[in-house]
Amino acid sequence: MLIDNHDRVINYVRLAVTDRCNLRCNYCMPEEGIAFSKRNDLLSISEMKRLCDILIGQGVDKIRLTGGEPFVRKNLMQLLEHLAKQEGLRELSITTNATLIGPYIKQLEDYGVNSINVSLDAIQPETFARITRRDYFETVHENLMRLIDSKMDVRVNFIVLEGQNEGDIYHMMEFQKAYPVRVRFLEEMPFNGGSRNFRKLKWNHKRILDHIREEYPGFEKLPAPLTSTSVNYKVQGHEGSFGIIPSFSRTFCGSCNRLRITATGDVITCLYGKPVTNLRRLLRSGLDETFVQEELISAVRSRARDGFEAQERFGSIFGSSMTSIGG
Ligand code: SAM
Ligand code: SF4
Predict the structure, then answer these.
(1) Domain range for residue 104?
(2) pTM of whole model > 0.85?
(3) N or C: which end of the chain has fewer CB within 10 A?
(4) Are strands 182-187 and 241-245 parallel, antiparallel or unpaired?
């Protein structure tokens, strides 16, 4: 079992399967993209399978595939098929921009994928095009509706972006009123690959909640697991629910149970600090898996207590892009 130096059990891994993406969300990366990793530096699908097996052997029972955009990764379904068979895995989920997921929805259901997080920061096509710099709104909307109709649990992640999508917040609330979907409003973080100046955060979690309260005054707090990063609420009579994630304010660090592994094998023990080691060489070395296990154990034994300490101790990664960190 992976237990960190603050006695937190690490049972949740977010694995980035690529750093590439078919969108160019302006809060994530510059228009021209970032310096993407060389293909040979990306873990292969079979290396990812091995790594996940090792992680599951260490007690990880929840894996989320992310990126970049997971569905631009060739042979992603082979990895999912493999993970779906792992008995030790209690939860398998994906974070996606939902542009390319359409043809795979049935297969994902058949594999028993539990939940899909769709990142959608706009419910009006023009806002979507301005933020993502691409014209895929109709496709995303159609896929989202199909996902809501599927067996999988669907969440929508909406980052509140000053001057860009405040006008869509109430539209998004209306969306969760009409459909059984969990919408989570997130604070923006300065992980944008230098694409925008990040001033002081205007839309922090308190302000987002106050803004929602003005229009929807009667909501109740929902119970949530200790490790949840969101505080969730429900307006009576609404089909769905909504939540707020204080991703920049970082009020949730105390119960953090997660580890990030990037598409090149970097191990990030806290989102706000630089990678602490890389597993690619070990995975390619021919050495047996105990070496990878030991490296993982030692990485989690020196975790920062919270995101502020990680930033100080390991060096801040603000200014990097979430697509290479693995969001
Ligand atoms: N391409 C997929 C997607 O967009 O869902 C997965 C990768 S994306 C990097 C993962 C998550 O990071 C998304 O929910 C995205 O909204 C979030 N993200 C990216 N840049 C961010 C930023 N500057 N602040 C907050 N969240 C960010
Ligand atoms: Fe791509 Fe996701 Fe980044 Fe948008 S947030 S550019 S969809 S990786």
Answers:
(1) 2-325
(2) yes
(3) N
(4) parallel
